[in-house]
Amino acid sequence: MAAPHDDCIFCKIIAGDIPCFKLLEDERVLAFMDINPFNDGHCLVIPKAHAENLHAAADDDLAACIAAAKRVAGAVERAVAPDGINLVQANGVGAGQSVFHFHIHVFPRRAGDGAMLNWRQEPGDMARIGELADEIRAAMG
Ligand code: 5GP
Ligand code: ZN
Predict the structure, then answer these.
(1) For the segment 19-47, what is each residue's pLDDT rounded down to a tens digit?
(2) 35 CA distance to ligand 1 centroid (A)?
(3) Are 29 and 11 in contact (CB under 8 A)?
(4) 103 an active-site residue?
(5) End-to-end CA distance of the chain
(6) CA of 42, closest atom in ligand 1
(7) Which of 57, 80, 97, 99 is deepest in the core (most CB within 10 A)?
(8) Tell me, what's the pLDDT at 1?
(9) Which of 12, 13, 23, 44 to mutate to test the pocket of ligand 1 (most atoms within 8 A of CB)?
(10) Neighbours of ion ligand 2 (CB under 5 A)
């Protein structure tokens, strides 16, 4: 497993050096409440192995995180009956990442809550979309 990072707040939570409201734990994953919730029930799922972001995380840890997020989201659904749930995951400062240990937000939504996660849906330029698909496929290797 990736070594904990001394300056990583989530590694400190995993180690038990900082308390959390724990929801679920197994050998790969920890889920706990976010202490700055946007809505009631906002929580986080993280791999125990430190990885800065999606690009750095191991596939097995990502798989474990999404399975745990599904389980936690089901419990959030039953516990707080939100109008919907977003799974949110940021990579890099430009995407709004503030803690550099991979995490998935289980983000309950309320109608009209104003969370800035939704963007306008207008038809794109199909030629440009096709070009970008080619570029992304080529980059996938
Ligand atoms: P990001 O901005 O990286 O997508 O999300 C980081 C999240 O971690 C934020 O929602 C923030 O509230 C949460 N967070 C930061 N520090 C702590 C902490 O010490 N404990 C808990 N439970 N959540 C934290
Ligand atoms: Zn960490």
Answers:
(1) 999 999 999 999 999 999 999 899 999 99
(2) 7
(3) no
(4) yes
(5) 27
(6) 10
(7) 57
(8) 66
(9) 44
(10) 5, 8, 10-11, 50, 101
**78, 80, 95: which is closest to 37 by C-alpha?**
80
Is 49 within 8 Å of 26 (Cβ atoms)? Answer: no
Between the CA of 65 and the centroid of ligand 1 the distance, in Å, is: 16
pTM of the model: 0.92
pLDDT of residue 3: 78
Distance from the alpha carbon of residue 1 to the mean position of ligand 1, in angstroms: 22
For the chain, which domains are there? 9-140 (3.30.428.10)
Residues 139 and 137: their CA atoms lie apart, in Å, by 5
Rounded Cα gap, residues 119 and 62, in angstroms:
26
SS3 string, the chain, reads CCCCCCCCHHHHHHHCCCCCCEEEECCCEEEEECCCCCCCCCEEEEECCCCCCCCCCCHHHHHHHHHHHHHHHHHHHHHHCCCEEEEECCCCHHHCCCCCCCCEEEEEECCCCCCCCCCCCCCCCHHHHHHHHHHHHHHHC
